[in-house]
């Protein structure tokens, strides 16, 4: 990344100059400015005591305050994400030398931006992102002609147009007005900001870009983000924007074809045109000079047709390619083979009717996400990409056995594997210990036969296990079942937080083991359409998170256990088509279901079914020998087999880890406290880099 390198160089320059100019005697806080800060603090509600250091005489040492080393004047005030509320007092006007004001991510609930800020003419950086400001923007802000960066994103300005006066901020390099409820057209005045490097107008309701594009002289603009607006018409000719490194236009209503002039933006690294209504052909010429392109996203333009020769050698090496829901097929695009650095490849729903090429599985050594679902891709799946976290191949015509999976050496880092709705056959491979991080496994609706493999028990992080619609049976379960029995409860204890099990529509027989109920975290259990026998386990009520329970179309007999009335979360219940009998236990839960939930059994009665003939003849809902399931060792069930062999856990930290990728702005504060006014250029550069970085981590995350 070029800009990263430049930032690094500049970093050293700035650090060196700091070393040379520092060394002055310590300058104490200026009393007038200290009082102004205290008055500012007194207007605020500081619920989290973030301004607790604002007491001492030396205001230059207060958190978020920085003074000039030479004059002692306050030059920086940064209270980012401090949970502040209340009034923003105009005492800040006393800070005549303040150049950096950052009040972002606080809660000035619903008030307009204070007009006095427009009088702080010396400001160079103003960050009011996500402050819950609303209403109109005072035109006085237009007086801030020295601003280098202005961030008003993440507020709600109630659908007003973007104010034109921003055009007077000639020094502006960074402008963020994203997610702030602006509507109307993009004012051409923004096109006068000849120093602009980054313009973010995303997630508003802007309806036209053409006047802005036509009159722009933004020769230095590197990042343009107008994603998620209501921009329509055909894509404008962007040739004048020849410095662009990132062009984000997704989530609009652009129509027509992609102009060939896009291919002239030779500095482009990111091109995102996804989720529009673009049409026509995309050819090699569209990429002719894009040799720096890293991320290309044309997804969700259903009428767009990629018309690219199979021997094309693109000028770029992509890390991310998304061509979901546009016409890539009928052949598997051969040119992708040249993209050896690919980390993400998405061809979901791309109308491909072809055999998967062999190179697909082994060419990309950095591939972390592979999405090929919903095509008609055929052929075997010889091996999984070695570094992939996310693999989705469902809804294709992949066939053959998966036995070669087990020939892979070493552990695979995969989190989700989805192979459902294909024609895979043979036994489910039994080497799941090689994928210890697996979080979700979906092999539903294939032709798998044989047993549910024991090594699934190694998947401690598994949350969802979908094996329905196969030919799984339990032909071996009768053998040695006593050996395992003693260990059963120990294994089930690890299953407490598994959330989703769907084994429906197989050929499973035997009983539901009693210890199944230790899976306390189960939200959905579907065992329907098998040949299960025996009773519904009496302590099923211990699955207290259960929201959906489907045991229909089996051979279950006996009464419905009373404990089922204890599951208050249950919203979907189907016990139909079994041999259940007796009175449906009373309690608000079970009575609230439609009679069809209980239909086609041997002798169920009571609300919501017709009354039982002579209620007292019907004993309480205890099955005569509830322990039979456990005692009858000769009839050990598939479930016990599965349960015995599985030791599930729960991936506690998953979202925590993903979430921590989002960069904290406090990092920036710490970082920039190193520098004084000399750091302007650096500030903008780094903020630019940070916003790029954050954007890319979000799109990837
Ligand atoms: C600031 O802007 C307002 C509104 O645009 C204008 O009326 C006012 O004269 C300006 N103030 C100064 C000091 O330039
Ligand atoms: C934008 O502002 C309008 C008018 O106040 C309001 O009705 C709408 O809900 C706002 N939209 C968003 C996304 O906040
Ligand atoms: C912006 O530039 C146009 C010419 O492109 C000029 O007419 C207009 O006055 C400029 N606006 C401002 C606010 O500088
Ligand atoms: C763009 O949208 C506006 C408002 O919905 C509509 O009036 C205009 O005709 C559209 N323009 C094009 C080119 O579709
Ligand atoms: C796109 O434009 C069409 C016609 O102008 C309109 O019906 C449709 O709602 C628009 N879609 C979006 C997402 O704005
Ligand atoms: C898929 O591609 C075929 C040509 O291979 C084309 O006839 C068909 O219209 C495409 N389907 C869609 C939904 O675009
Ligand atoms: C399951 O196996 C039976 C025969 O054993 C076969 O008739 C049936 O088609 C198979 N079902 C699936 C989904 O493979
Ligand atoms: C359980 O699976 C069957 C088919 O496999 C499906 O028809 C049924 O809707 C599922 N039950 C629930 C409650 O989702
Ligand atoms: C119960 O389910 C059946 C079949 O789905 C439906 O026809 C009937 O209207 C439902 N009754 C009630 C009371 O919801
Ligand atoms: C000001 O001086 C202090 C103490 O010498 C030093 O830590 C700080 O980095 C200096 N700040 C600037 C902006 O030079």
From TrEMBL:
Q: Any idea where this protein resides?
A: Cell membrane
For this UniProt record, the keywords arranged alphabetically read as follows: Cell membrane, Glycoprotein, Leucine-rich repeat, Membrane, Repeat, Signal, Transmembrane, Transmembrane helix
Q: Where are the transmembrane segments?
A: 642-663
**Which SMART domains does the entry mention?**
LRR_TYP
Cite the InterPro entries for this sequence: Leu-rich_rpt, Leu-rich_rpt_typical-subtyp, LRR_dom_sf, LRR_N_plant-typ, LRR_R13L4/SHOC2-like, RLP23-like
A Pfam family that this protein carries is LRR_14
Asked if the keyword Nuclease belongs to this entry, the reply reads: no
Q: Which GO terms describe its biological process?
A: defense response; response to other organism
Q: Which residues form the Leucine-rich repeat-containing N-terminal plant-type domain?
A: 32-68
Task: Tell me where it mainly resides.
Answer: membrane
Family stated for the protein in its record: Belongs to the RLP family.
Q: What is this protein called?
A: Receptor-like protein EIX1
Which species does this protein come from?
Salvia divinorum (Maria pastora)
